[in-house]
Specification:
Layout (H helix, E strand, L loop, with lengths): L1 E6 L2 E7 L6 H18 L7 H6 L10 H16 L16 H18 L5 E5 L2 E5 L3 E6 L7 E7 L2 E7 L19 E8 L2 H14 L3 H6 L5 E6 L4 E3 L14
Antiparallel strand pairs: 1-2, 2-3, 3-4, 4-7, 5-6, 7-8, 8-9, 9-10
Length: about 250
């Protein structure tokens, strides 16, 4: 089964290779992501996130899901010394850098709970897989029709933060200026909650983010810095395609 829908501002692709009818689990995945878009978008004035950001919801009245997201944001803010920050001056509370990976990981867990064993869930280029091996290409940070590496993953997640799709959209919370020390950073982790947040946090740290991300539990990474040097951890699951970023 293969289904693609546009949710949360990007295409989400679900492929299930198990035999049988999986319309129910697929419906649950996309239903959950649509719910997340309504509840957690900082661009929708009536969302829970927007109401919380405006001070209309005290901590005692927020949902358990939002409390979890806030906790993740605060954890990564502390871990990066403020480089990763969901509360940038003049921009209000924006937890999107955490919500995407967290919500898609939750969607993957819905599939697993429904008995789906082999699937690939791709949310705007950030991927959760199960029952592999799956081969996942990582886009070259400067050339749209090239890959800089291919990785092979059986169960787990991979996320990339880069400048090539949205320009200098990731800010260093310590300065408020765009983070420009890296061209791209790809993180492999057991969950997309971790992979996506660590990739964004590493990018916000700039050049120092490579060493920081490499020290995060369960994480492997592939990065291209502003000088076009390729950096990778020894355990990064490359599938035999050499780097082409230099």
């Amino acid at each position: 089964m293969h289904r693609v829908e546009h949710v949360m501002g990007f295409p989400v692709s679900l492929r299930i290779d198990d035999e049988g009818d999986h319309d129910g689990p697929a419906d649950a995945v996309f239903g959950w992501l649509r719910e997340v878009d309504e509840r957690f978008s900082p661009f929708k004035p009536g969302s829970e996130v927007s109401r919380y950001g405006r001070g209309e919801l005290p901590a005692a009245r927020i949902s358990a899901d939002l409390a979890e997201v806030i906790g993740l944001c605060e954890g990564y803010r502390a871990a990066t010394g403020g480089a990763f920050d969901a509360r940038l001056p003049g921009r209000g509370f924006d937890p999107c850098a955490v919500v995407k990976g967290w919500s898609v990981q939750r969607a993957a867990e819905l599939l697993t709970a429904a008995g789906v064993r082999r699937f690939c869930l791709n949310a705007g280029g950030d991927v959760v897989v199960a029952g592999g091996p799956w081969r996942i290409g990582v886009r070259h940070p400067e050339t749209a029709d090239r890959l800089c590496t291919v990785l092979e993953l059986t169960d787990g997640a991979v996320a990339t933060s880069a400048r090539y799709e949205r320009g200098d959209h990731i800010l260093d919370g310590r300065t408020g200026a765009p983070a420009t020390g890296l061209l791209s950073v790809t993180v492999v982790a057991p969950t997309l909650t971790v992979a996506d947040a660590v990739a964004t946090a590493a990018f916000s740290l700039g050049a120092e983010g490579v060493e920081w991300a490499a020290g995060q539990e369960g994480c492997q990474l592939f990065a291209v810095d502003a000088g076009r040097r390729v950096l990778r951890t020894p355990g990064f699951p490359a599938a035999g395609v050499g780097a082409a970023a230099a």
